Amino acid sequence: MTALLAQPFKLPCGVTLPNRLCKAAMTEGLADPLLRATPRHATLYRRWSEGGAGLLITGNVMIDRRVLERPGNVAIDGNGGLDELRAWARAGTVAGNQLWMQISHAGRQSPRYVVSHPMGPSDVQLDLLGGYGRPRALTEDEILDFIQRFARVAVTARETGFTGVQIHSAHGYLLSSFLSPVTNRRTDAWGGSIQNRSRFLVEAVRATRKAVGADFPIAIKLNSDDFRKGGFTHEDCLQVVQILNGEGVDLLEISGGTYEQPRLLGFEGRAEDATPRRESTRLREAYFLEYAEAIRKVARMPLMVTGGFRTAAGMELALQGGAVDVIGLGRPLCTHPDVPKQLLSGAMQEAPAYEKQLVMARSGLLSPTSPVLLLKLINVLGGQGWYYHQLYRLADGKPPRLGLGVFGSFLRYWVAELGTAMKLRRDKIGAA
Ligand SMILES: Cc1cc2nc3c(=O)[nH]c(=O)nc-3n(C[C@H](O)[C@H](O)[C@H](O)COP(=O)(O)O)c2cc1C
């Protein structure tokens, strides 16, 4: 049953993944006040390395200390911390797996309690109950600087023992927001046609490849669709994949959605802004598999799909169908770090799916489809907070705490995030 899942996979750069399971990127929120890795990263990643996935991808590591996705992000931006990165990389590779650093810029999706004026392609604000400031449109010099920063951070990843990088261009963060006509209203070479909207991503990949050499894995995380009216569409995605075909990408991870339409986690945002969900997607275990099937027809690089996969049979079928080469898993590994090992050995047929229980009510005002945005958000953030809390426990060497409720997790989430934000000491970091 698990024949393909357990098979190694050779990437275009020559590196071989020991099997087809990947722990997808999950922001850890474990950095110190100077945004450096800590021993908790090492504990967490040692557990995941021993858990059997052939590939581990870290959570967002930011290339710009000013604009974080969360206050507990690790950043690589003049803040030292190289020994801590080395300890993290050593622990995350103890079992001989690959460990790739996800490198990222949050763009306009940096909350007010982190930065009051974030940055984006244009000054289009993220409208989520006032939680995000109006972004400032980047100048061309800043874009060129960020392209070099992606490359520099990738070199640091390589030098400190990470075995690859993933450039985050999904979920509405900076590179992803350049791809979308809703957030990118530029009229210069970085906006307008899909060639222009994808220029930042393509240049970041080129600079990174040039800096790290031909034998170091570079992956990209890309939305199959933003699911937002007037936004980055599936047709845009297919074009971007074709543009990326010649760029030496080792693995393209397919996801979807943004903070406004959090389909990456199986949720929907405001109905009036959304494009409809396809019925065939609703019926499938993995959220983006049918998109991957279309992408496969134009892609020349290996593909990975993340989101919703839970059963060994579903994963095996997706591999056999030929649409994907690697299966990404997120939430199940927050409570059970050895899920990959168990799926591969056949000891587990279905990974846990606590997210299905993590709703305040199945229907009515308190449900995840509530017409009241605040209540819908409590469900999404409470569920997310539940998983963050489990990650903290794994990082402290403790077992998961499965009995936490959604509302309690929501409250804990805010206390932890605001507490971490208050401790940040970015002003103490030397020149960027
Ligand atoms: C706690 C948590 C943190 C996440 N952080 C990130 C992140 O830093 N970068 C990223 O690309 N995706 C992030 N994601 C999305 C996951 O990589 C993945 O796409 C999503 O969880 C769907 O996969 P799953 O259904 O197997 O959980 C996060 C998801 C969760 C639950």
UniProtKB/TrEMBL annotation:
Keyword match Oxidoreductase: yes
Coiled-coil region(s): none
Domain NADH:flavin oxidoreductase/NADH oxidase N-terminal residues, every copy: 7-346
Pfam families, alphabetized: Oxidored_FMN (PF00724)
GO molecular function, one term: FMN binding
Keyword annotations: Flavoprotein, Oxidoreductase
Domain of life per record: Bacteria
Protein name: NADH:flavin oxidoreductase
